[in-house]
Every structure is written in C-alpha cells, then in structure tokens.
Amino acid sequence: MLSLTGLTGTIIPVLRHIAMVVVAVLLAWLSDWLCRRLLVPLVMKLTAKTEFDWDDQLFNRKVLVSACHIVPAVMATRTVVCFINAFQGYESEGRRSNMQQYARSFSSVVKIILMFVAGIVVIAIILNKNPLTLFAGLGALSAVLLLVFQDTITGLVAGIHLTSNDMLRKGDWITVEKAGVNGNVEDMTLTTVKVRNFDNTIVTISPKTLINDSFQNWKGMQESDGRRVRRCVSYDVHSVRIIDDAMRQHLIDKGFFKESELEGREVNLTLFRRYMERYITGRDDVNEQMTYFVTEDEAGPNGIPVEFYFFLKQKKWEDYEHHMSDIMDIIYATSNEFGLSVHQYFPSKK
What we know:
The N and C termini lie far apart (104 Å). The chain is of the alpha+beta class. The protein contains 13 helices and eight strands. Helix 3 (61-68) runs antiparallel to helix 4 and helix 4 packs antiparallel against helix 5 (98-127). The protein is elongated, with a radius of gyration of 35 Å. Among the domains are: 3-90; 224-338, Alpha-Beta Plaits (2-Layer Sandwich). The longest helix has 39 residues, at 11-49.
C-alpha cells in the first residue's frame, strides 16, 4: 500500500513500522473499550444477583476494568495486583480473623514477587534476553537484595509470628508505652502496624518492634466477663479506732449492719471493709462471679492504703469509667459514716 503511493527507498520500512504501531494501539484501545462496555456490566449484574458477598468484593468494577487490559495484552500484572487488593479487602467488619490476617500478609508478599518478576520480564524483552538468564544472574546480587528488602523480610517474619500465635489482629486495643501507643489497630501490613490512639492521633510501628519489645493487648479483657477495677484509698491512721456505743448505734440506724452483727469489740476500718465488700458485690454492674475483695496494705507515711478489687460488667471505656466513678464516690462518701478520714497531702508553700 505504501509502494502504491509512490514512496521508495528506506522510508517504506520506517513508515510500515509506524503504521503497525498505530494500528496495534487502535485495536488494543477498541478491544479494551468493547470489554469495558459489554463484559464489565454483564459480570457486575451476574455477581449482584448472587446471595454471596465475596464475589461482589473480588469482582468489583476496578478489578474488571483492569482485567479488560489483558485483552490488548497491556501488562496483565496490574490486573493480578488489583485482584489481590480486592481479595485483601474481603474481610469481616471490625476485627480481622486469624486466617484473614494470614492471607493479607502473604498477599503482600505475592504482590512484591509478582511485580519483581514482571520487571525482570520487561527488562528481558527490552534487552532481547532470556528471562531465565537474568534470574540466574541475580544470584550474585542476593546480598544486595537482602539489604534492600531487609525491612520487608523482617516485617514478614514478625508479622507471621504475630499472626501464628494470634498475638494481634485488626481491631484489637493495644498499649505500647515506649512508642506512645494506646488505641485500636486499624491496619497491619508487612512493615507497619497502624494504630489510632484514643486522642485520634495515628501511630505507625513496625511488627518487629512489637516482637522485640513487650506490648499489652486488651483483647482478653474485651472477651472476658468483666473488666477489672483496682483502686486504692489511703486513710488516716489516727481515724482508725474501736467503735463506741454511739458509733455502733449510728451504723445500725443507717442500715449498714444489724445489731446482731456488731457484738464485741469491732474496729471501724474492719467494719468498713466488710460493708464495702457486701455493697460492691450487691451491685448489678459488678460481676460477683469473678474475684473481688477489699483489703488493706502496709501502713506508711501516706496512711493505710485500702485496696478495692473487683470486676465491672461494663467493658466499654465510657461506661466503665462512669460506673467505676459512681462506686468510688460511694466509697468516699461512706468513709465518713464509719469515722474514717481519707488521707490528704498538701505540700507546703514556700
């Protein structure tokens, strides 16, 4: 066709190659356009009619549009990566299951390997070399590759360790004092663990940090039957005494004890501890099936510490704080009824 136009010489091969490239691009664009207009809506309608959710997630519009690029043979790696991303997005709300975390970690590794292999293949095509020859030559660069991907490799090992031992999942509340972390895990990747603190700041730490250092996971508390309360109140030593007849009658009139329960020599602090145990376990918001006690520690410069130990049924942070504060308010107010003085220290002003 070019010869019929009257062209001769070396210009014909050049124009022929240019024409072939243009035609190839046009055919690739046309096939891609037809697939996006015909196949994508058809597949999305089919997945929408099924009762399952996983097919809507894995075969979403982004994956299907990227799959259309396979028809003109435009880098099929992109489609596989999009499919892996869609597979990672298919997970339960809130906390991520153990198997889902495994799949997410290994999917990230597969993407890295896939893109690495695709890059080698592209370079081999450009250099007109066998890809296997390039892969064989990478053996000498293994030390350099290990150095480049050091964080990825250590992150993968640490992530597998966290997942295999079920130490951490998405949605867990964790505390890492050294890193200033106190919040919920929002995401876990090969190299980072993203945590949203309760002040809405975002902190990212490496899985290696969690493995090498200690961290506190509150998952056990959230899955248990109660959340622990452990508070101490110090009382003035001089306010501890054996009750007299007036105090005995006062406690009976207030309904703290019956007359038969106050026979003999009784100490006000002993009676107070006994009453508070009965009061705490009688509340509806306290789980009396779990450990509870009111006991005193060794006296010191700050008085006699009395420890209140029990478990609340309310585990949500706001509810937990409110119910605990209500109980502590009762403790402070009742102390005076038993003739006890809460120890207070006021530093002298210079």
